[in-house]
Amino acid sequence: MVFSWKISYFVPDMELRQLKYFVKLAETLNFSTASKELFISQSTLSHQILQLENELQQPLFQRNSHEVILTEAGQELLPLAKETLHSADNCVQRLEELKDLTGGELNIGVTFSFASIMAETVTAFLRKHPHVKMNVTQSTMADLIARLENHELDFVLAFKPTTPNPRIESQVLFCHRLAAIVNDRHALANRSSITFEELQNYDLALTKKGTQARSAFERAIAQTDYSFRIKVEMNTVYLLFRLIRESNYITLLSESTVVAEQGLKAIPITDTDTPEKQMHGCIHQLKNTYVKRAAREFFHMLGESTSVLFNREHIKFK
């Protein structure tokens, strides 16, 4: 669909195409790279940027034979241009979605701990809406929220951060404790709970620093003098689960992480029973932004999924 208009309230004669070209050049700071990614010639890009600068009556880039740099005006325009392009995209999406989800994309960010929780919903959604393209990005909470703020993601599935972000609204799906995850043959597998003090006696395989489960662990032990035997660190869920299944290592994750995982057992850590140490599983979205129909459908299906319903009903705080 070709979508073009004049932005009369912004600058007379400024077009969305020019803003698109400007944003791409601002992101790459290279005329050759930007023109290739835009599928236009370098001379066309140069002409359009020059025309935009003439309309604004000030330079947006400093150019020399070695580099391209945003001017102060360019830095000021960049976030405004991104917001304008995003608003235009929303107009197109609203019209496209009148076709009963027969197309479009859904861009989801998910943290390490949420990967297994959303797997059931991803499969069910794609079976019901096969023409919607789904792009799933797994990363740290900080990276995903930055992408969400940059409109690269439609929403993020992650635990609630300790520091609120004024641009983000979070819908809580469930609350959990941190748990010790072991295989079902482990000597601790039949335990109903465990303490951090006891975990000092076992070899741990943990997620990398920066992941939410690791941050929750570090906050919980911050005021203690415990010493833990951390033997392995990784951020690949498949390898971590395989290691736990095939060894006596213990990992520390939310109880919800292994609800659908065969051969693994979550043992609640009693030190995290207090409300302030709960981990709130959430859907995170940008405030005051249009929510795609596909996203609304995904939210509904996620809320009705076996994993989320199990988390709500069967994992309670004592």
Give an overview of the whole structure.
The protein is of the alpha/beta class. 40% of the residues lie in helices and 21% in strands. The protein has helices at 16-28, 31-38, 42-56, 72-96, 115-128, 141-149, 196-199, 212-220, 237-246, 293-303, 306-314; strands at residues 61-63, 68-70, 105-110, 133-138, 155-159, 168-176, 178-183, 203-207, 229-234, 251-254, 264-268, 279-286. The N and C termini lie far apart (55 Å).
- Write the H/E string, N to C: HHHEEHEHEHEEEHEHEHEEEHH
What would the average pLDDT be, to the nearest integer? 85
> What characteristic shape results from the CA principal axes?
elongated
Q: Distance between the terminal alpha carbons, to the nearest Å?
A: 55 Å
Strand order of the largest sheet: 4-3-5-12-6
**Count of discrete alpha- or pi-helical segments spanning 4 or more residues:** 11
**By helix and strand content, what is the structural category?**
alpha/beta
Number of strands: 12
Proportion of helical residues: 25-40%
Strand content: 15-25%
Low-confidence stretches: 1-12, 314-318
Give the radius of gyration: 24 Å
The main sheet comes to: 5 strands, mixed
